[in-house]
Design goal:
This protein is mainly alpha-helical. It is 46% helix and 8% strand. The protein has one domain: Ribonucleotide Reductase, subunit A. The longest helix is centred in the middle third of the chain and has 39 residues, at 228-266. Bound molecules: fe (ii) ion (2 copies).
Amino acid sequence: MTTIDYCERIPNNVDLASDRKLQRALESWQPKFLEWWQEMGPALPTQDVYLRTAVDVGREGWAHFGHVALPEYRWGIFLSERDPNRKIAFGDHKGEDAWQQVPGEHRADLQRLIVIQGDTEPASVEQQRRLGMTAPSLYDLRNLFQVNVEEGRHLWAMVYLLHAYFGRNGREEAEQLLLRNSGSEDAPRILGAFNEETPDWLSFFMFTYFTDRDGKYQLGTLKESAFDPLSRTCEFMLKEEAHHMMVGTTGVDRVVTRTVELMKEHDTEDIASRGGVPLDVLQKYMNFHYSVSLDLFGGDASTNVANYYTAGLKGRWLEERRTDDHRLRDAFSTIPFIEADGTLIEKELPALTALNVDLRNEYIGDCSNGVKRWNAILADAGIDTTFSLPHVGFNRAVGTFSGHRITPDGKVVDQATWDAQVTDYLPTADDKKHVESLMQPVYEPGKIASWVAPPKTGINGQPFNYEYVHLA
Ligand SMILES: [Fe+2]
Ligand SMILES: [Fe+2]
């Protein structure tokens, strides 16, 4: 069951060949996907790219590496192995068998959750489409394309569920996933952060650190779902996501490392004119990407998320490691909140209603690990500046803090004060222009752009100077 069948037009481990109707439906979606990839996927022409392709869904040796022409990448449908004894871990149905079909009363909600997740996957490919033109090295270019093909595969993962379990409605939603586009006026992507462009590689590293990490946490909640095919799909997606996290984490590491090198070499903090990204600009990029990613967790108090949990559709991060009753009917949580008059308080809410904040807190804890890493690079170089994550209410457009102005260190200020100081908090037009000016492509094996250090290790044991990409 775990081995993936590559003889089929659509590689899969779900025995697609045994369901001719489903197979035909997906085979008629496939050319539309490829058309979308040609039109909205990577704009830089290449001959081939050193990519990993999933060949198995087991723990060991699940991927194969080799040079592949991008349009010939084998996008397919891979679910983690089924545990025939799996029980629902939370909510009203706790202890019952996991669902192999969609219960009628949860059809609309489950479909909505799958569509929202599915919409983010192609959106990020669209956002990153032009980045290949300015890649700092072939190694980075390869990583970008790896992320892109896997986000494309994640779209396949969600489209499979829509086709296999949601009938005609599901098929219609699968069409729509290719028709909405990031930043489009008429048909934008569903979530705000996925309509922002990723204009440069610093933004790409910040995006894969902060925004892709939101994706990791959302997938973590769906992996707990009582709807077993969704759970198994997300479990396998999480395996691929680990690489995307690595790209973001080490990407920012390498920018910080290079900044520090340039500061030492020139004995100044002012390294903008010396081909680097100054520390304060890095902090502003972190502030921006972190705050827009926090918005993706939705409202601070949400009855929807409470209902999803109780119904068993969406669990908590690492649900089974929690030591409470997994029903939360009588539990309370304390969340940060802002009163209408602008006073920051702690507020007690039913734990079920506060589940978005529970997930957000897990995410914040994870993000702070990155900041610790980057501060360790500064400390090792003897630099006594530190990075920090801004206050949870900083620059927020969703939830209790939206409509308020809160500084990165958590002071509530009026609009005039904000306007006077915002250039210290968020990237300015000049900062962005400077970063843009650094984005000169480097396509020679073993060479790298001025603003970022080379990686410590290559991909799959290959050296940094390996020919990861052959340009067309
Ligand atoms: Fe993804
Ligand atoms: Fe991702």
